[in-house]
Amino acid sequence: MAKFNNGVIDFDKEDIEAAWENAPHLVNKEKEEYRMCYICKFHMLKENFDKDKLSTYGWIVDLINLKKLDLDHKNFIAIHPWCMEYKKGLDNRSLLKKVKAQLWAFNDSKE
């Protein structure tokens, strides 16, 4: 269970898995390996979760609704770390709902 520690949230393995499961999936890729950042709509690779060394498709855990600091698994989401600054507001539940209502596909074309 996530805990506050000196102003920082420490996430455990279950929290990280919940964040991954809450992120939008791509219809033509395996949910276990690929998810999509709901802010920039670009993919993330599950294996690239890392707090210290984030690669191109790396991700972190974020809170969907920062207005209510709820450390429940439903409030966690996988997101690119550089997309944090592009979030529109503190409560992104409606944006996430709109993104999840659409079908998203990974572009495999070489063009």
Average pLDDT figure: 90
Provide the spatial order of strands within the biggest beta sheet.
1-2
Measured between the Cα atoms of the first and last residue, the distance is 44 Å
Helix content: 10-25%
Order of helices and strands: EEHEEEEH
Broad structural category = alpha+beta
* Biggest beta sheet attributes: 2 strands, antiparallel
- Percent strand equals 15-25%
What characteristic shape results from the CA principal axes? Answer: globular
Radius of gyration: 14 Å
What is the domain total for the residues?
1
Low-confidence stretches: none
The strand count comes to 6
Number of helices: 2
Task: Please name the defining characteristics of this protein.
111 residues; alpha+beta; two-stranded antiparallel ribbon; 2 helices; 6 strands; HNH endonuclease
Note down, in words, how this protein is organized.
- There is one protein chain.
- The protein has 111 residues and is of the alpha+beta class.
- The protein has one domain.
- The protein is 16% helix and 18% strand.
- The chain is built from 2 helices and 6 strands.
